[in-house]
Amino acid sequence: MTQATESPAAPSAERSPGGVGWAALGGALAGAAGLAVAELVAAVVAPGASTLFAGGAAVVDAVPPWLKDVAVEWFGTNDKVVLLATMGAVLALGAALAGWLELRRPPVGAVLVGVVGVVGVVVALLRPSATPLWALPSAIGLGAAVLLLRAVVARLRPVPGRSEVSAGETPGGAVDRRGFLTVSGITLGVAVLALAGSRVLSMGSTAISAVREKLRLPAARMPAPPVPAGADLKLDDLAPYVTPNSDFYRIDTALIVPQLNPQDWSLEVRGLVDEPFTLTWDELMELPMEEHYVTLSCVSNAVGGDLVGNALWLGYPIRALLERAKPQAGADMVLSRSDDGFSAGTPLEVLQDPDRQSLLAIGMNGEPLPLEHGFPARLVVPGLYGYVSATKWVTSLEVTTFDTDQGYWTPRGWSALGPIKIASRIDVPRLSTSVSAGAVTVAGVAWAQHTGISKVEVRADGGDWVTAELAETVGPDAWRQWHVSIDLESGYHSLAVRATDSDGQVQTETKAPPAPDGASGWQTVSINVD
Ligand SMILES: Nc1nc2c(c(=O)[nH]1)N[C@H]1C(S)=C(S)[C@@H](COP(=O)(O)O)O[C@H]1N2
Ligand SMILES: [Mo]
């Protein structure tokens, strides 16, 4: 047998090598249309069920801790945008490859698209809040992509009868070029319309923003002590004592912010308790609220980093919820779960501590929680990193044990317990500002939540430690600003800072990376004095 007597498709395609590029383009268009159709269906079913978002969420859950650190370090809080862009690029390349394969080795391209679609269906069904309907976006998107792929690529096959004439000629002579362009145009149209439709439909989600805007929170029965006049030094570049909501760092695994309507929200308190119960929003609103300033920080914060912020939280004590549920002997952990599948394991003892103001929070700096910070309710526990305590969009508290359960990050390489390490940061002078020789103001913040900061020291060029002046603070759960004047001659200098907590423990010089239980070491900055 010779090449020439094989099935017509393969040799003809070989005679029109230019068709390969067009097939790749057609594949990419069909892939884009499939993803857009999935977005459109997801806008009706559930935003998190689309191929892109369910796939992205699965990637987020699967990344090893070191990669999470690298992502936060390189991209900061833009890491999600980078993830989605990378996924988009990989899928576009895969779809182009499918176009090429479909031309050369049908139906391999269609099968490849099918595999991606099936993976999309499976990961969507595996999401914690998934219902069987979550299979639809990827399934329907997959169907659309396969149909369009086959239709586009079919137009690149030589039209019978014309193929003889065109042997060895440019592909345009042999294939139905106009047909190809028409089908490609239709495919592009499907992609654009489906995407536009999904945007329009998902604007319904701004409905939750509207609900939040209208919400009036109850006044605190127990208001926070006023912020002392001297707590905020109000220096340029120094982090303000109270972090505005719009500047507050955001860390979570959610690719799309969960949209919870308070009227549909409830908190289930269950597990090893004598009196399990479910608390509705209206019931919560009737309970006496408290207000506390608490500084929240992330275990991923590098030395000198800004994944930390101080806010006024309004909420109901978690301690009181637990009292009502009556935990049983032997329990030592509360596993809090969020609507989107995150969980945190917090020591029961910490949450029952009458001296620790742990809240089921509904308000942040005088407003309902912003959507990204956990609307309508989240946990805030002074002294523990967010990953083991600060569950946003919280929907259940399960009293359990550390032996039987673990929070989201623990199997991913992070410590089960996450007490916050003593930390101090230099905010002033900023690297970019020019400083003149003489008395130089150095200032920053320091935190050791729940113990409090008793001293901050700064030294220049490895010399003697100079004690900084501490600004006032409302209490041990909130950070403290500090400032000191240091004489510096012109030239390069290195400045280091260390804090001491109220128990007399000095911040360790030993450097540790964020994983597995938080970064440590003294922050050192280099400055150029004119
Ligand atoms: N539902 C949910 N809650 C979550 C997380 C999350 O990924 N999902 N991340 C936690 C982590 S690691 C931190 S540091 C804090 C950050 O809270 P913020 O975004 O309001 O600053 O939220 C915690 N609560
Ligand atoms: Mo975190």
Topology:
Elements: H1 9-15, H2 18-45, H3 51-62, H4 65-75, H5 79-104, H6 108-126, H7 136-154, H8 163-166, H9 171-174, H10 177-202, H11 206-214, E1 266-271, E2 277-280, H12 281-286, E3 290-297, E4 308-317, H13 318-325, E5 333-338, E6 343-347, H14 348-352, E7 359-364, E8 367-368, E9 378-380, E10 394-400, E11 423-428, E12 438-447, E13 453-460, E14 466-467, E15 469-470, E16 480-488, E17 491-501, E18 523-529
Parallel strand pairs: 1-10
Antiparallel strand pairs: 1-2, 3-4, 4-7, 5-6, 5-10, 7-8, 7-9, 11-12, 12-16, 13-14, 13-17, 15-16, 17-18
Molybdenum atom binds at residues 251, 298-300, 385-387.
Key traits:
about 525 residues, alpha+beta, Sulfite Oxidase, Chain A, domain 2, Immunoglobulin-like, 3 domains, five-stranded mixed β-sheet, 14 helices, 18 strands, about 35% helix, globular, disordered N terminus, binds ligand MTE, binds molybdenum atom, transmembrane
How would you characterize the overall build of this protein?
This is Molybdopterin-dependent oxidoreductase. The protein has 530 residues and is α+β, with helices and mostly antiparallel strands. It folds into three domains: 190 residues, no CATH class; 168 residues, Oxidoreductase, molybdopterin-binding domain (Sulfite Oxidase, Chain A, domain 2); 107 residues, Immunoglobulin-like. Helix content is 35%, strand content 21%. The chain is built from 14 helices and 18 strands. Strands 2-1-10-5-6 form a five-stranded mixed β-sheet. It binds ligand MTE and molybdenum atom (MO). Molybdenum atom binds next to loops. The site of the ligand Nc1nc2c(c(=O)[nH]1)N[C@H]1C(S)=C(S)[C@@H](COP(=O)(O)O)O[C@H]1N2 has 19 residues, from loops.
